[in-house]
Fold this protein.
Amino acid sequence: MRQYLGSGELRRQVARFWALERPVGAICHGVLVLARTPDGGTGRSVLVGRRTTCLPKYMERTAYLTTAWRLGRYYRTYPAYVEDEVRSALTGPGARFERGPRVLTRRGTATDDSHAFVPLRPLAG
């Protein structure tokens, strides 16, 4: 996980793909790669000015607290929670973080996405 999330080469590839303005999706810790990828102009995260979500802090914290007795710090990959780091990368005008569902048992379906997380996409006007 750390090799993936900390890879400069991966961030360069992501930045090149991001510049094509194609849809980008990430799950779990994968949003950290986007948060850590600088855009070509300002050097700020490619997420600045975007609407996004990520692994919710409560889910990451719950996984850690319920398994720490057996797995140690396995679910604490970094000192900051994913949500905290992604929120900090979004700083600036137009940034919008959207929390996912607060329940673990409901999921979106093919005809109802009300419990699904939000997609990464540009903010409207």
In short: Confidence is low (pLDDT under 50) at residues 119-125.
